């Protein structure tokens, strides 16, 4: 019957389509996670050298505005004026001001990690004395803190972001990396110090070296005692505190 023939052809056509149709490629959990993160990322990484230069100029402009305490009131137009780029170039890289702010903060964290972590790695690889490695760590972190005093004092910029959670998460990630590297060093060099607990020792050492200089610059007092006449003298005192605490002097 004609009706049945039409029905059979329709069924056959459907079966062929089902057989030859391509199934969507399944993403592995890791690829799916990366793809999702890329879609959500408010920062678009530069793809070419010229684009990277514009990206870095924007971050530099953001850093200057933060250090001056002027980021809250700054418009995207003001940021791009200082960065010498167009508003379109800004939005081609960042979804909004918060995204540019976080990119700047992330870049600063990466720079500090690149300064500090190799000190601990070299202390292990080259079998350097523990006291020497710790002294390098103290000097490097204090120099960085003093050099960035204006920026540290202006870190109320976190309140200008819609959510400060990504900033604290990034800081936690960086501090965790410092702790792990220092803890590993103290475990390996346990015989060179009298402190019996590397875990506690690493936590307190980071608190001393990272906290005291930061507190000093945040309050506007870099050299906290009238008897300390220079940054070198200040670093020497912190080294004395750390090495004495660990019993590694």
Question: Could you describe the 3D structure shown?
Answer:
- With 249 residues, the protein is mostly helical.
- The protein has a domain at 104-246: Orthogonal Bundle (Tetracycline Repressor, domain 2), CATH 1.10.357.
- 71% of the residues lie in helices and 0% in strands.
- It has 11 helices and no strands.
- The longest helix is centred in the middle third of the chain and has 29 residues, at 97-125.
- The termini are far apart.
- The model is unreliable at 10-25 and 27-41 (pLDDT under 50).
Question: What secondary-structure arrangement, pairings included, does this model have?
Answer:
Elements: H1 2-20, H2 29-40, H3 49-67, H4 76-83, H5 87-91, H6 97-125, H7 130-147, H8 149-153, H9 165-188, H10 198-218, H11 231-246
């Amino acid at each position: 019957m004609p009706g049945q023939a039409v029905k059979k052809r329709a069924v056959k056509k459907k079966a062929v389509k089902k057989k030859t149709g391509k199934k969507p490629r399944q993403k592995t959990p890791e690829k799916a996670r990366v793809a999702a993160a890329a879609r959500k990322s408010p920062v678009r990484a530069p793809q070419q050298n010229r684009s990277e230069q514009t990206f870095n100029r924007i971050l530099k402009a953001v850093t200057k505005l933060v250090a001056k305490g002027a980021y809250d009131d700054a418009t995207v137009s003001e940021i791009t004026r200082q960065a010498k780029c167009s508003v379109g170039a800004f939005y081609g890289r960042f979804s909004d001001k918060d995204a540019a702010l976080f990119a700047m903060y992330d870049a600063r964290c990466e720079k500090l990690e690149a300064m500090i972590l190799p000190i601990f790695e070299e202390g292990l690889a080259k079998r350097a004395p523990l006291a020497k490695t710790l002294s390098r760590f103290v000097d490097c972190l204090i120099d960085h803190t003093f050099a960035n005093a204006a920026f540290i004092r202006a870190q109320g910029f976190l309140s200008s972001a819609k959510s400060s959670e990504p900033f604290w998460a990034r800081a936690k990630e960086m501090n965790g990396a410092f702790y792990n590297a220092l803890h590993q060093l103290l475990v390996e060099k346990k015989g060179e110090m009298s402190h019996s607990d590397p875990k506690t020792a690493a936590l307190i050492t980071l608190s001393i070296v990272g906290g005291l200089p930061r507190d000093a610059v945040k309050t506007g007092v870099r050299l906290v005692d009238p008897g300390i006449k220079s940054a070198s003298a200040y670093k020497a005192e912190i080294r004395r505190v750390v090495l004495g605490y660990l019993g590694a002097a």
